[in-house]
Amino acid sequence: MSDTNDELAKKVVSHMMDHDGFSKWLGITVMNIREGYSKIGMTVRPEMINGFGIVHGGIAFSLADSAFAFACNNRNVLSVALDTSINFIKPVHVGDSLMAEAKEIHNGKSTGLYHISIRNQKGHEVALFKGTCFRTNKSLI
């Protein structure tokens, strides 16, 4: 990885965020971007609660999915989710600050594999997400 690659990665993610209304609605902030890597955060709001009084699992999934998208697309090769899964480890509550860190496990010509860890403000892992992407032959920017 070079600084040039990391600069491109940051430009791609900035472009993605400019056009990503859902990540904006979640309140996602981009914390760190490097080629094949992303770290993002958000704070849980009251409207994200489910009927059990804890945060809806779709919120943690969506945060991880955004981190996945930012990591697998930041080489400026349009990549789409092929397969994803999540394991919920601990409940998430209103006011929690969540951080999702996406790490590239495999960068292939047509697919990529990423592991995303979601942690709360206490550093406790609350969920683990695994995503496989399919790489197209299109550019994002």
What does this structure look like?
By secondary structure, the chain is an alpha+beta fold. The chain has one domain: Roll (Thiol Ester Dehydrase, Chain A). It is built from three helices and six strands. The chain has helices at residues 3-18, 21-26, 57-73; strands at residues 29-34, 37-43, 79-88, 97-107, 111-119, 125-135. Strand 5 and strand 6 form a beta hairpin. The two termini are 20 Å apart. The relative contact order is 0.21. The model has no long low-confidence stretch (mean pLDDT 96).
Average pLDDT figure? 96
Q: How much β-strand is present in the residues?
A: 35-45%
Query: What structural class do the secondary elements suggest?
Result: alpha+beta
Largest sheet: 6 strands, antiparallel
CATH topology: Thiol Ester Dehydrase, Chain A
Adjacency order of strands in the biggest sheet: 1-2-4-5-6-3
Q: Can you name the CATH architecture? A: Roll
